[in-house]
Amino acid sequence: MNKVVLVTGANSGIGLALCERLLQDTEGLQLCLACRNMQRAQAARSALLTSHPTANVALLQMDTSSISSVLTAAQEVKLRYNRLDCLYLNAGIMPNPQFDVNAFFKGLFSSRIVTMFATGEGILTQKDCVTPDGLQEIFMTNLFGHFLLIRELEPVLCHAGQTSQLIWTSSSNAHRSAFNLEDMQHQRGTQPYSSSKYASDLLSLALNTHYNKQGLYSSVICPGFVITKLTCGILPSIPAFLWTLLMPVLWLIRMFTNNFTLAPYNGAEALFWLFKQKPESLDPQAKYQSLTSGLGNNYIQPRKMDIDLDTSDALFKKLLQLESEVRKKLKGNKNNPIKSTVVLQDLDHLDSDHTILGCRVF
């Protein structure tokens, strides 16, 4: 049977590189790109079909920061597919960060240079906002939107006698110190991105606890330090030529720390590798790291996550409670109906329309 794969955040960067690798390696794959911006999604689809003209590539409009968008998109998935073999939970944002130029240049000549590039620690100040649904945007986009999607797609993810995969794009910036179970939306903190990524690590473990018996398995990856478009928003004041000049420095650093994957293709290594594994053979408490050697060779290394079963289960229960509250609110709000969304399968009739050098902080 041809495998069915859905990738969120698939129109650029690591998500797009993953789609290219999947199509190169898997015959008969049914691939669905779930994206917020359909113009960019169509451009991504066109690029994939240029390399793979006979590929089955569909588009789905979905914004994980919007509850109604996630719910309607999930309904469309269930109408189109009777099963999903793999769901990549890749979409994510770090909105409105402020870049500390002085701290950046000081870090270049200090022992913190590797940590600074790999995680953005000390050079980025994050600012969050509230969505129209009344939730913190980073929490909603990176975590809760994906949680709702999984819950809605249970009928196509869970089938007797077969296994399915959930694969999360996490981060080296997922720190326990940034997460507070009593403030899971990170309303009172200053590291909402780190908090959301640590929460995704916890949630992955909880999903295995609750869904493995139904054949659904969850895994977590870290793509390493990758050069993508995300930095267009993070470092708007840094000219592209400066990053070009820094590339030799980054390659040199990679000789000493192999988490500098740099290219989206390299960063997608763990995402692609997990797709080829038996889900039941994977370690639910490991984060699978994409690594690139100083000679440019890609490989995978599992590393134990700083998580525990009790906290993961407590988070899962809190998310279930929030889901219940959200559904009650939607049901009772007659002025906010859920509108239907169309899965765009053939966009050849439409007009076509990470590439600045910078770091995607995962």
Please explain how this structure is put together.
The chain has 362 residues and is of the alpha/beta class. It has one domain (4-335): Rossmann fold (3-Layer(aba) Sandwich). Helix content is 41%, strand content 14%. The chain is built from 13 helices and ten strands. The protein has helices at 13-25, 38-51, 67-80, 101-108, 113-119, 137-152, 154-157, 192-211, 231-234, 240-254, 264-267, 269-275, 309-332; strands at 4-8, 30-35, 56-61, 86-89, 98-99, 124-125, 164-169, 216-222, 286-292, 298-304. An eight-stranded mixed beta sheet has the order 3-2-1-4-7-8-9-10, with helices on both faces. Strands 5-6 form a two-stranded antiparallel sheet. Strand 9 (286-292) and strand 10 (298-304) form a beta hairpin. It is globular. The two termini are 34 Å apart. The model is unreliable at 336-362 (pLDDT under 50).
Strand tally, please?
A: 10
The largest beta-sheet arranges its strands as 3-2-1-4-7-8-9-10
Strand percentage lies at 5-15%
The helix/strand series, from N terminus to C terminus, equals EHEHEHEEHHEHHEHEHHHHEEH
Any guess at the CATH architecture?
Answer: 3-Layer(aba) Sandwich
| Overall number of domains | 1
Q: What distance lies between the first and last C-alpha atoms, to the nearest angstrom?
A: 34 Å
| Rg, Å, rounded | 20 Å
pLDDT below 50 for ≥5 consecutive residues: which ranges? Answer: 336-362
CATH topology, what is it called? Rossmann fold
Specify the structural class: alpha/beta
Classified in CATH, the superfamily is: NAD(P)-binding Rossmann-like Domain
Report the top-level CATH class.
Alpha Beta
- The geometry reads as globular
How much helix, percentage-wise, in residues? 40-55%
Q: List the total number of helices.
A: 13
EC number: 1.1.1.210, 1.1.1.270, 1.1.1.62
GO biological process, one term: cholesterol biosynthetic process
Keywords: Endoplasmic reticulum, Glycoprotein, Lipid biosynthesis, Lipid metabolism, Membrane, NAD, NADP, Oxidoreductase, Steroid biosynthesis, Transmembrane, Transmembrane helix
Subcellular location: Endoplasmic reticulum membrane
